[in-house]
Give the backbone structure.
Amino acid sequence: MWIAIAVLAVLSPLGLFLPDYFGAGEAWGEWSLETVKEQTGYEPEGMKKDADLYDAPVPDYSFGEGEENLAKKSVGYVGSAVLGVGIILLFTLGAFRLAMQKDRA
Amino acid sequence: MHIPDGYLSPQTYLPLYGAFIAVAAVAVKKVKEKFDRKMVPFLGMAASFSFLIMMFNIPIPGGTTGHAVGAAIIALLLGPWVAFIAVSVALIIQALVFGDGGITAIGANCINMAFVMPFTAWYAFKWIRGKTVSSTRISVAAFLSAYISLNVAALVTGIEFGIQPILASGPEGHPLYAPYPLGIAVPAMAIQHLFFFGFVEAIVTLLIFRYFEKNFPEMTEALKMA
């Protein structure tokens, strides 16, 4: 079953290619501030204040620099998939260890 | 369905954070009660699966994108409380590391996709299945429970978006956060999930469910429910 997880990670760029191919934009309600401004004609004040509250280390599953085309984006996307799964597994294992220690103490 | 930062007012995201923490406390307690070492890899696998399936953005041609969440199949296989924990872990990592979903909205997103969704799937399955042992009806129950659960989660998310203009508007009447009222937000969220993403979740759920039903029926929580 771990193989299935690996296959999903490798295939994840389909999640980039298909929307690109069909010209689909951002998910409903997940627009950037600029898009909201275009759609409504104004920038909601609170949104402006909070939108950039937090800088994610790997924003939008992209490592940034040099990911200008889909092929390079895909590499970043698979990298993100692997990184995400890695963190999840470390976290799950860590939480489990911690819970075990607590129970023994 | 990942609500970003800036879309929800504090009046919305703070109570939802509170609700999330309360549910998390219950979930940890519930899962610990029946805890079994063998469950750790499954929990990790389930969280990984949910994380990955949400990366598969599926387009509505010329329109928006969406994705399955995987919460329904995880609930049917491991039970709704384990599903809550697994999907929450995936959502928290997505927010913290990848900026998918806001940090202020972690509570809201976890309530929508990790709580509302697996529990809806679980009880919908229970209700549709009834007392049958018919394999067809069980498959129908798996399919429909996934379809319904994603739609209920989308509806709740749509309501959270839609109440923002009521809760917080500026002096000129412009909403301070998510700009669209209920009359737009709810149908927008509902329609794309009713006609599209709900079926994706349902098909993914059915395929995986059939596989486990056939090969690992003893591991499938939903088959054990009374």
